[in-house]
Amino acid sequence: MTKAAAQVLLERYWEDCSNQGNVELVRELCADPIVRHDPGGETELSHQDQIDRLKIGMEMGIKIERVITHANDEWAASVWNMHSDSGVDGMTMCGIEVFKVENGVLAHCWNTPYANGHWSPYES
Question: Is residue 66 within 8 Å of residue 96, measured between CB atoms?
Answer without folding.
Answer: no
